[in-house]
Structure formats: C-alpha cells, structure tokens
Amino acid sequence: MNEANSVLVYADGAASPNPGRGGYGVVIIHEGNRREFSGGFRATTNNRMELMGTIVGLRTCQSINRPGGEKPSVVLYSDAKYVVDMFNGGYASQWRANGWTRNKGRDKACNPDLWAELLTLAEQYDLRMEWVKGHASNVENSRCDELAVAARQGDDLPPDPGYEAPSLSDLPVIRQATFLDCLNC
C-alpha cells in the first residue's frame, strides 16, 4: 500500500468521566484536501468513542471511487490500542464469528454494535490501521483530540443508543400473565 495514494484517516475519542459525556474527532486527508468531523453523546465510554471515530472516518471514505472498482486504500491512525490491536490481531473478527463472545464463549464481547459496523466498513477498503502515541507529537492526532473534547462539551448531546439503550438480550425476562393468573385479580 502506497501511503501517498491513500486516504489518511486520523481518529480519536474521549469520555470524561469514563463513562460519561463523550466525543470523537476525525481528520481526513485525501488528494490535498482536508476535512474534519466530530460529534458527541451525553453518556458513553472512551472505547465507544474511539470506535466511533474510526467508523465516522470510514463512513466518510465511502464516497471515494477508484478506477476499475478497485478498493480505496485507507491508512487509519488511532491512539487507541484497544481499536488497533483488536482489529489488526483479528480478535474482533473472531468475536463476530463466535456470536460476539470471547474467551471461547464464556464472556460477551464489548461494543458489538460498533465492532460490527467497523468490520463491515473495513471490508470496503484496502485498510491498514496504525497506532500512534496519543497526546504526543502527531499534529493530526492532537487535532482529533481537540475535536473530541470540544464535542463532548457540547450542549444537548444525544444519547448513545448502544450504551444507553440495552439490547433485548440484556433485558430481564418478564413472565406474561395467563388467563388463569387473572382469575384471581
């Protein structure tokens, strides 16, 4: 993969406290053009925002066309070892193959809604994920952090549906009353 011809995506996430108000920031550089994106949620986690940053970056790249239907080359930079290591190591793909469980089915994988979208988006690209040291000398990573922090400090932040709204499998089972139960009502 030639980085000079690639779309460069920088992504970061933040939550404070963790869990708490969260935001993500994204910088995309392609063919001399630079774009920035950010957003936030009223209650979420840092890991969810790190994932959301990568997802927003990859969603944005969907409009890039290559001659002959070739997959666009994307280099995604993140300071989240959680995201980079779980993606590059194939762990997230294993969780998906195992019904979003890990440790041989003993534990639920965290953030399956976001991992599912990230893995689906990743299939559309010739994607390379790279870890960068956070809050260091990488100008674009620092800018993403600024965007993420500003986004989480915004007013009227929406809910993070994957964090605030439990999935159906997490809800308690409620026994329905039968006709016989109601005879004594």
Description:
With 185 residues, the chain is an alpha/beta fold. It has one domain: Ribonuclease H-like superfamily/Ribonuclease H (Nucleotidyltransferase, domain 5). The chain contains seven helices and seven strands. The protein has helices at residues 46-60, 81-88, 91-97, 112-122, 139-152, 161-164, 179-182, and strands at residues 7-16, 20-30, 33-44, 73-78, 101-102, 107-108, 126-131. It has a five-stranded mixed sheet. Strands 5-6 form a two-stranded antiparallel sheet. The chain starts with 6 loop residues before the first strand and ends with a helix.
CATH homologous group name: Ribonuclease H-like superfamily/Ribonuclease H
Structural class: alpha/beta
What is the domain tally? 1
What count of helical segments does DSSP give? 7
Alpha-carbon distance between the two ends: 71 Å
CATH topology: Nucleotidyltransferase, domain 5
The proportion of residues forming helix, as a percent range, comes to 25-40%
Task: Indicate the proportion of strand residues.
Answer: 25-35%
The average pLDDT score comes to 88
Describe the structure concisely for a colleague.
The protein is built from seven helices and seven strands, in the order βββαβααββαβααα.
Please render the helix and strand layout as text:
Blueprint: E1 7-16, E2 20-30, E3 33-44, H1 46-60, E4 73-78, H2 81-88, H3 91-97, E5 101-102, E6 107-108, H4 112-122, E7 126-131, H5 139-152, H6 161-164, H7 179-182
Parallel strand pairs: 1-4, 4-7
Antiparallel strand pairs: 1-2, 2-3, 5-6
For the structure shown, list the relevant keywords.
185 residues; 7 helices; 26% strand; alpha/beta; five-stranded mixed sheet; globular; disordered C terminus; Nucleotidyltransferase, domain 5
